[in-house]
Amino acid sequence: MQAHLFGRLTPALAARRRLLEAVRPIERTEEIAVERAAGRVAAETVRAPAAVPGFARADWDGYAIRSADVRSARADRPVALRVVGEVFAESRFRGRLRPGEAVAIATGGALPRGSDSVVIFEESERSGATVRMYAPARPGDRVAAVGSDIARGETLVRPGTLLGPALLGAIAATGRGSVRAFARPIVTVLPNGTELRSPGARLRAGEIYESNNASLVAAIAACGAEPRPLAPVPDDPRALERALRAALAASDLVVATGGSSVGERDHLPRLFPKIGRLLFHGIAVRPGKPTLAATAGRKVLLGLPGHPSSCLLNMFWLGAPALRRLARQPGPGWTSRRARVVRAIPPPGQGLARVVPLRRLGDRVWPTWRGSAAITSLTAATAFALLPAGAPGIRAGGTLTVFALEPGLAASPNV
Question: The domain at 334-405 falls in which architecture?
Answer without folding.
Answer: Beta Barrel (2.40)
